[in-house]
Each structure stands twice: as structure tokens, then as C-alpha cells.
Design goal:
TIM Barrel; alpha/beta; 317 residues; two-stranded antiparallel ribbon; 11 helices
Length: 317
Amino acid sequence: MKITDHIKEAKGKTLFSFEIIPPVKGRSIQELYDNIDPLMEFNPPFIDVTTSREEYVYIDRDGLLDKKITRMRPGTLGICASIKHKYDVDTVPHVLCGGFTKEETEYLLVDCHYLGIDNIMALRGDAMREEKYFQPTKGGHEYAIGLVSQVQALNCGNYLHDTMETDNCADFCIGVAGYPEKHLEAPSLKSDLKRLKEKVDAGADYVVTQMFFDNKKYFEFLAAAKDMGIDVPIIPGIKPIAVKRHLQLLPQVFRIDLPQDLIDAVDACANNKEVRQVGVEWAIAQSKELKEAGVPVLHYYSMGKSDNVHAIAKSLF
């Protein structure tokens, strides 16, 4: 079922969902199941599965370093299919511009259609570690709007190199990312919202926001998006702080601000166990206010661990 249909069927009730990261290759999928199992208590209508782009590794061959491309976390589509089968829940694979040609994207979308996966999260993706700025893959999309347009074209039976007349066209529900504090590369929030409006006009059906820790930022973003003419559901993304180094890491990587009250609370912690509890309590307070405001879904970035997300959901659902 489409994410937008889940939201309609909820009739104003706030839904619970979360995002997982595929395990590093060579690890068992059982680890993933062990973290998903406790969260199924809260009846998530869908689960997002991230995609990691390629990266370089250097192999020592008789004293010479051989540069090779690899993927440390393969299997997004396989994991989506496994979760869908095991838990009878909709899954949302993240589809990236970076690291994929348009043809490879089409193959992935065709496979999703065959497997009965109805939803796609269309993202540009990040720059590779060796790159200062994002560089599009040769033969791939430069921006997420191109990816959205490709998915929408496939929904109409238009493939890259031909058009197919069929009664079984794909009908993907397309999600895209939104940034309450603007994308780190955007010159302003208004220009970033214009890009978001372009993605919606190209066919995006819903938005999931980047993490934020001040609900005021989300509410202001929601109002600005509405003023821009963006009328699709905007789902808030919530990440509980778990370790002290998040105070430096999150602002550096995601260009977001942390409220001073949260910073002070984390600074006062003696260890990361205490930090994790502060993160849970902050996310519960955030989530309660958002739920009272009638957000369609509360979407949690679990980062592969479910204990803190479980504690948060237990207080809300």
C-alpha cells in the first residue's frame, strides 16, 4: 500500500514508522530482525531501508595500493523484500542518484515493481568521502528531481529506451527529503523550498524531513512550505541523541542547530548511558508535541538500534 493511502486510512491518527540501515556485508540479517522485532508492537505501516553509495578501498598488492570501488552495505532491495515477507509490512527502499546510472535505477525500479514494493524514497545522496562536493555519476542523475521524474515516467509506462503498453504499470508512491533548517548546500531556506516544490511538481507524493531537535523549526518549515504551494504530507523525522559526540557530529554532518537546553543536559551526563536517557526523554517531549499538532506520521531514525526508539514509542503509541 502507498504511504499516502496509509495516512488517509489513519483518518488523522498519527502513525509510527522508522528507518533502518542494512547490516555491513558479511553480517547476518538476524541482527536486523532482532532490532525490528520489538518495534513491531507499535504497528508501523511502513519501514524505510537506507541505501549506502559506493566507496573506495585501497588493497595492498606487493607494496602498491590498488584502488577499488566497493559497497559496504549491500542488499537494500533484498532486505526490503525480506522484511515485507517476514512482517507483512510495507517497505520503502531509498533510491539514490549518486553511484547509480539511470539504467541501473530502472533495473532497480523494475525489480521493486515485481516484488510488490509500492513506495520509493528518491534522494540525491551524499558526496563520496574523497569528494568535497557531490559529483553525479556518469550516466546518472545530478539532482533528486531527475530521479523523481524517472520514477514518474515509469509509472506512466515510459521506460528509458521505449514505451510499454501494459495493464500492469508501476504505480510508485514517491517520497523525497525536506530540510527544516535547509540543505547544507542550499544558499537559503527559501531557495531550498523552491527545489522541494519542484520535486513535488515533478511527482513527489510526500516529504520526510531531516532530523531536527527544535519543533519550532518544523512548524515554521511546514508553514513556509504551505505558503510555497506544497500540499503533500510532510512527515517529521526524529533522531534521539545517543552519545556525547553527537553534540559535535550532528551539527557538523547535517548542519543543524541543537537547543541549548539539550546541549546542557547532555554535557551534564557522566556517561553515554545517561546521554541515551536524555535523548529518549527529549525525543518523547518532541514527539508528544508533534503528535498533539496532528502530524501524519512520526518517523524515527533508528540507526540499527531499537532500544531507545522502543522506549520513545512506548510512551506514545
